[in-house]
Amino acid sequence: MKRVQFEHSPIPYLFVAPQIIIIVVFFLWPAGQAIYQSFLLEDAFGLSSQFVWFKNYKDTVLNDAWLQSAGFTLFFSAIVTFLSLALALLLAVKANEVIHGASTYKTMLMWAYAIAPPVAGLMGNLMFNPLIGDMYQFMNATGMDFDHKLDGFDAGFVVILISVWKQVSVNFIFFLSGLQGIPKSVIEASTLDCKSSFRRFWTITFPLLAPTTFFLMVINITYAFFETFGIIDTTTQGAPGGATTTLVYKVFQDGFRGADLGGSSAQSVVLMLMVLALTVIQFRFIERKVHY
Amino acid sequence: MKLGNLLRTAVFGAAMVMPTTLLAQTEIQWWHAMGGRLGEVVEEISAKYNASQSDYVLVPTYKGGYEDTMTAGIAAFRAKQQPNLIQIFDAGAATIINAKGATIPVAQLMADYGGGFNVEDYIPGVRGFYADSDGQMIGMPFNSSTPLLYWNKDAFVEAGVDGPPASWEDFEAMAPKFAAAGYQALAQSHSPWIFSENFMSRHNLQMATGNNGFDSTDVKILYNNDELKMHWSKVKEWLDKGWYGFYGRGWGDNQDAFVQKKVAMWLGSSGSFGGLSKSAEFEFGAAYLPYWKSIIDEPKGTFIGGAALFAMSGKSDAENKGVADFLAFLTGPEMQYFWHKETGYVPITNAAYDLAKSDGYYGTTPDAEIGILQLNQPGGEWTKGYRLGYYVQIREVMYSNYEDIFSGKASVDDAFAAIEKDSNVLLQRFADTYK
């Protein structure tokens, strides 16, 4: 047997280099630093430092506050992902059917995409302000005893509402383009075969949208885990009683507010592993069901 | 076109910087956490300082809130890019003071570079908080405030109440009248600071072992005591009766409730005086922080909150000299009086206090003196403050548990047991870290 040796040109490496450099500088290096830091007890100013193995993990992970935060994060992420996807899909399907003034509808629905999470949070915070907030007045006028400053459930409602509202428009854009990518001929053929538009949607349209849905699900889970930070920081700040503290917010509180670098690093390493595991599960089990 | 603009800006920028470099002025970087009106006053102070001399250029930079400023300072120090002077708040004091070598104690800095330092020049209430256990001042108290009670005079007339309560017993007697007049009687803006830390000081109760943490980092918290639990049981009772308004843990939200006449009395900071004078559309007065007669006959003074300026280490002699020069300027009577008048923060030196008195400021604005009078009330064994590590997180624990008390999720006993347990874990971590 004779081995075939191909001449390698360095040019492909050159083309991927920018991407590789970005990953190394903005992910691998800081992630490595976090792992290293998570094994250290170090004063905030870096003047003294001891290697302590897993002490930081033992102290800050799996205690009551962390478990409460992890529970909320999972619940919050599941709800936010599901609602943002479901609402966006509904809106996209309906907007896709509109003929008159279609672009106006679409533009209005995409609008919120331009809003950064902290800005959405600030707006929500004003709307739910106990003194001047219209939403706060409205919720109480409907007979509910609504008080998101003290009730953990109500506070969760506020952050979920704002997070979903902010994310729906992003999903809407993707779903709409996904819908428009479905060949007309397939839709027409199915219309001839089946009268029920409901059934046509679930048997023809939805499976054809699966790649988009899967992509959006991964994006939305990441959004709910990480990007909602800005919304939580500008609305509840984790209150009341830690009821709306996501894991990312807790990392921020301990590390950036409290100057506990080791504890905060340990938590962020655990968070990184959790998201990694979640992503692997998604690609391994859910992506199999997706037909491209 | 764009590039042309950029070039022009660069050339222009260079031209702006040139004269300073040519004159060889030493630049002093000052990172602070004073936003809004307070930030403007900081800019004015800096401008006054820069106009007063030609050796140094003071450059103040707003770095966000207290925590943001501390985090920025820490990150900068680790990258060896620290500013000369940084403002660190009360709860972060333990972090910077226990990091041995991060700062130059201001007492030493002033003695070495600034023509001497005498602790007796400072009013008694501010000497201890940012000092080490030997009484050497590490940080220079800057915006020093203390919790006060503000009362809406119109609301008091409407409710038929004569004046502010001296004690919480008085408060309980007058609260139903406010309820009848359509007011919540009370709100406050900082549960840990006002209803815990200064509660301990006012009633002369020990807050932590190891001399409130001044002597050691290996300490235990003493919040789980009957007096504080009694107070919080009462606050919860007031909330349920509609006497107490809770508008979240945000400072401004509770202050707004007072400004918008929802509540008749509000516990805030002596430093709120300037802001309230501008925003409140009614006559208000300031009064001492109430106390429980059932706990103490004569209340003790409170201690300062707010923040101090720390001189960071690793700087050249010339720059350190400039920092000392500026601190001498800042603590001079005129500048302290200016700061006091503009913001409501207390003057930190006796000379400045005397100047305010002789100028007749308290004759026209007697309420502005309440803060300093309260700080100068007789002190006790436990009125000089605290030095506790990871106190930012401990405050977070307190906030959480107080919210659980309010919402009924936890009993007062359970909440304080949780505060004790979680705080001690944090203190232990701090002691392990800052050996």
Description:
The complex is a heterodimer of chains A (292) and B (435). With 292 residues, chain A is mainly alpha-helical. Chain A folds into 2 domains: 11-51, no CATH class; 56-291, Orthogonal Bundle (MetI-like fold), CATH 1.10.3720. In chain A, 71% of the residues lie in helices and 2% in strands. Chain A contains 12 helices and 2 strands, in the order αββααααααααααα. In chain A, helix 3 runs antiparallel to helix 9, helix 5 packs across helix 7 and helix 7 (152-180) crosses helix 9 (197-227). With 435 residues, chain B is of the alpha/beta class. Chain B is built from 20 helices and 10 strands. Chain B has helices at 2-23, 36-52, 66-78, 93-98, 106-113, 124-127, 153-159, 168-180, 191-202, 209-212, 226-241, 251-259, 273-279, 317-331, 333-343, 350-358, 361-364, 370-375, 391-407, 412-433, and strands at 26-32, 56-62, 85-89, 103-104, 140-145, 147-152, 184-188, 263-269, 284-287, 305-312. In chain B, the strands form 2 sheets. In chain B, strands 1, 2, 3, 4, 5 and 10 form a 6-stranded mixed β-sheet that branches. A 4-stranded mixed β-sheet of chain B has the order 7-8-6-9. Chain B is globular and about 70 Å long. The model of chain B is unreliable at 11-22 (pLDDT under 50). The chains are: A mainly alpha (292), B alpha/beta (435). At the A-B interface, helix 11 of A face helix 3, helix 4, helix 12, helix 19 and helix 20 of B.
